[in-house]
Specification:
The structure is a homodimer. Chain A starts with a strand and ends in a 9-residue tail after the last strand. Chain A has a single domain, classed as putative 2-phosphosulfolactate phosphatase, CATH 3.90.1560.10. In chain A, the strands form 3 sheets. In chain A, strands 7-2-8-1-9 form a 5-stranded parallel β-sheet, with helices on both faces. A 4-stranded mixed β-sheet of chain A has the order 3-6-4-5, with helices on both faces. By secondary structure, chain A is of the alpha/beta class. Chains A, B: Keywords: Hydrolase, Magnesium.
Chain lengths: 244, 244
């Protein structure tokens, strides 16, 4: 099984994802928010690239979520904090989300056979689904301003660690995959504290979002794995596995 | 002291290097070759981007070195194997080099206050010079096909490790810096074997360049640090330190 890690949304190329399972990671905070909203009972979430498109697609009864420059968008129901996506807000509703890097990565992954999302909150479950699907994998870190972030890297490293435990075939990694896997192993024992040194964790903490940081660094709180089905992110169900 | 690591030559921006010490790393094999050639007695090396420019600048008595697609260029004295740069070939001579990523990174670093080159062969000496110069630092990994390589990443991680030991001020890292430092610490005890898993080490070995791989992974064989002075790479001498 081949696994390639891509550093940021801007670097994603069609050849990275075609005939593969793609996994988008944006720990702070898009993919942490998506898994939370679905776990709280949202029916589905549609990721879109622009604010006008989100407003255009939003119908009566849907919730709108997302951010620009880390701030909630005027007229939206929630920003990019997973803690805003409560059962009260999302249960039984469909939603639309737009964020700077995370939704861009999801859209650029469009040609993959499957598109999943991972965060620390569901990383182990995601590895199990990827091993079950048994295709080559593209791990797509969303990044920030076209560059790799520490939190996405170490989540990718942890995902590789779990895939190696679940996969039947031997795993071959690209160089970034080898590096993030080593980095994960290098700080596995003190992961949460190391991640608090990341530039985004520091920035979010400074802006008063410390609870978000703590929440997003929680490992394996959910067994739910979001998967894209016809432009909607829904919870993966093994029995729904497509025939490729 | 601020240290930012950049993943590949194509990602280098002027704002990464301005008012800083820049360090270019291309372990396989440009910066390993440059330090070797200077250590074997070459007077200076001029890095140029194109083969025609190398031929145009080459004067009687100079040696020409470099590669395209990992092969020696027709009419050149040597390719990109450091072991070709023997005392017999280079001592007392000026040289010109052109390689795919390494020389491109050197040229893109042009606006930095200082431009050094590092490889495992001289990484500790390079850290000491950087601490002595005491400017913020841009570590520029040359990469391959616009993406990070494992060998450049771990050399950058080792460089950071040594700088932290030598620097008077506390060191602040960007996220890629944090990741490569952790990756280095994660495999410090078994570095050579881990690096043999890198895609470029495997490719070079397959092509019969195993000796090059072994040589380039040798740590701290030299105390020489190449520095760019008016388009020429020469050995750094502390007394030549410029006043900025």
């Amino acid at each position: 099984m081949r696994i390639d890690v891509v550093a940021s949304a801007s670097e994603i190329r069609t050849e990275d994802v075609i005939h593969r399972s793609a996994v988008v990671i944006d720990v702070f905070r898009t993919t942490s928010t998506i898994v939370t909203a679905l776990a709280q009972g949202a029916i589905c979430i549609t990721p879109v690239e622009t604010v006008p498109k989100a407003k255009q697609l939003g119908l009566e009864g849907m919730f709108l979520g997302g951010e620009r420059f880390c701030k909630k968008i005027a007229g939206f129901d929630a920003g990019n904090s997973p803690l805003e996506y409560t059962k009260e807000l999302v249960e039984g509703r469909k939603g639309i989300m737009t964020t700077t890097s995370g939704t861009r990565a999801l859209i650029k992954a469009g040609k993959a056979s499957y598109i999943f999302t991972a965060a620390f909150l569901n990383v182990k479950a995601c590895a199990e689904v990827l091993a079950e699907v048994d295709l080559d994998i593209a791990i797509l870190c969303a990044g920030q301003q076209d560059r790799l972030t520490m939190e996405d890297s170490l989540c990718a490293g942890m995902l590789i660690h779990y895939i190696k435990q679940s996969a039947v075939q031997p795993v071959r990694l690209n160089d970034l995959g080898l590096v993030v896997h080593q980095a994960y192993l290098g700080c596995e024992a003190d992961l949460r504290n190391k991640l608090k040194e990341s530039n985004e964790a520091k920035r979010l903490t400074k802006q008063g979002h410390e609870k978000d940081v703590d929440y997003c660094l929680t490992e394996n709180a959910f067994t739910l794995v979001p998967v894209m089905e016809d432009h909607f992110l829904v919870p993966w169900k093994a029995k729904e596995k497509k025939i490729i």
